[in-house]
Automatic annotation (TrEMBL):
Keywords: Cell membrane, Lipoprotein, Membrane, Palmitate, Signal. Residues 29-48 are annotated as: Disordered. The gene is msmE_14. Coiled coil: none annotated. It comes from the Bacteria. PANTHER family: ARABINOSE-BINDING PROTEIN-RELATED, POLYGALACTURONAN_RHAMNOGALACTURONAN-BINDING PROTEIN YTCQ. Residues 1-30 form the signal peptide. This is Multiple sugar-binding protein. SUPFAM superfamilies: Periplasmic binding protein-like II. Residues 32-42 have a biased composition (Low complexity).
């Protein structure tokens, strides 16, 4: 059995707050977990006697302009310099591409040495199939386990074994371009109805209101489920469905469908939204072509490294029909780095991943991308030159009062795919909310016999 998830406890006990202060912590730089460079360098003398080793590292950081890609290459490069007998071969893909490729690889039991899995329900089939190696032993080395925020590893734990190490621990927010808001004469919306209204006003000024990368179907679902979090009056709608306390024909679900369609009909999203993948969709906002962007707080560093930096603010997703608490968020435990149980170089792969994760928070901090990491970070964000946007995001974390996981991290893969397809279709054509609800319920019953 998977360890019980601690969704609300994670938020209420402050694990979404990074074990640091946004300012006034007395440090001028990132202390972070100690770098292993020196020890790896000493070990490399012995390893040079071994034959060359290639470790395949599948990841979801394909865009070379983003901080995440630069962090990846920095740590990998440092490791290969210290360990010349080891070659780290990167396979960098967009999220949906990586999911599809891993599914194919898993079917033939050819999982890369290191791959990416998503928490909870999404990774469970890979664990059940025996494709992933437990990482408990590696976590005990160099104090790595203690660098993670309390409770975050539970999302990647089955039968007391940890099978993946997360890159982040985030919440979903709405980023907005202050300059474009001013041009349209609109203000930050406090209600969903105001969000629809300002979308119409932005559209009337020739400004695309919201960027969404809906070719990657999880993005539309992420937005939609934030609406469900509001219309349901709080968290646990999907849990109640799983426990047979509610069905998808519940009024809260149907209302959320109707509200999403209100946004689509208001012209809130870019033309051809379902043809934009994550990189292309996000770049619309980062290049100043759209006024808003609903996404996890992991996007903060990339926005701060773009042409719209210093123009961007952030706000909580508003109430819907007067329902919901804006301090409850879509919670996003990050993508996890997992090791293949069938790796030909299991020992060396674990050694590298230990080095990677030990250095990840330190390098992330140095590259101004430590907002939303899953590990504790030592350092003064303000003194280190982080933007006002980053400081504002950190402030939001301090008041998180729980929330929900994404749909595909909660339901089994068959049900998740039916949902993702159904929601994506709403960006193309309008449909009766009752019919959408019935589709979901039918898919749930088919996939939960």
């Amino acid at each position: 059995m998977m360890k019980k998830l601690q969704i609300v406890n994670l938020a209420l006990t402050g694990t979404l707050v990074f074990g640091l202060a946004a300012c006034g912590s007395g440090g001028g730089g990132a202390a972070g977990p100690a770098s292993q460079g020196a020890s790896s360098g000493e070990a490399s003398k012995d390893k040079e006697k071994q034959g060359p080793i290639t470790i395949t590292f599948q990841n979801i950081y394909p865009d070379p302009t983003t901080p995440t890609n630069k962090i990846l290459k920095k740590i990998v490069g440092d490791y290969m310099t210290a360990n010349p007998n080891v070659k780290i071969e990167l396979d960098s893909l967009n999220t949906d591409q990586q999911k599809m490729k891993l599914k194919t690889q898993a079917a033939s039991k050819e999982v890369p040495d290191i791959t990416i899995v998503n928490p909870s329900a999404q990774m469970k089939p890979f664990v059940d199939a025996g494709l992933l190696a437990p990482l408990n032993d590696m976590l005990e080395q160099n104090g790595l386990k203690d660098t993670f925020q309390k409770g975050i590893l539970d999302y990647y734990t089955f039968d007391n074994n940890v099978y993946a190490l997360p890159d982040g621990n985030n919440i979903a927010v709405v980023y907005y371009n202050k300059e474009l808001f001013a041009q349209a004469g609109v203000e930050v919306p406090k209600t969903f109805e105001e969000l629809v209204d300002i979308s119409k006003k932005l559209k009337a000024k020739g400004i695309t209101p919201i960027a969404i990368p809906e070719k990657d179907t999880w993005t539309g679902s992420f937005l939609f489920m934030n609406m469900v979090l509001r219309t349901n009056g709080g968290p646990n709608f999907l849990k109640d469905v799983l426990d047979k306390k509610k069905t998808f024909t519940d009024p809260a679900f149907e209302l959320a469908v109707s509200k999403l369609e209100d946004l689509v009909q208001a012209g809130a999203f870019q033309e051809g939204a379902t043809s934009f993948d994550y990189t292309a969709g996000e770049n619309l906002f980062k290049s100043g072509k759209t006024a808003m962007y609903f996404m996890g707080t992991w996007a903060t560093g990339g926005i701060d490294d773009s042409s719209v930096k210093d123009k961007v603010g952030v706000f909580k997703f508003p109430t819907v029909d007067g329902k919901g608490n804006p301090d409850q968020y879509m919670l996003a435990p990050g993508s996890g780095f997992a090791v293949s149980a069938n790796s030909k170089h299991l020992k060396e792969t674990k050694e590298f991943l230990n080095y990677f994760m030990t250095n990840f928070p330190k390098v992330s901090f140095e590259m101004k991308n430590a907002v939303g990491v899953a590990q504790k970070v030592d350092g003064d964000f303000k003194a280190a030159g982080y933007s006002q946007l980053a400081i504002d995001v950190l402030e939001l974390f301090k008041n998180v009062q729980g929330g929900d996981l994404a749909f595909d991290n909660t339901m089994n893969p068959g049900m998740a795919q039916a949902h993702l397809t159904s929601i994506q279709n709403l960006f193309v054509q309008q449909k009766d909310p009752k019919e959408v609800a019935k589709e979901h319920q039918a898919a749930f019953e088919t996939n939960n016999k």
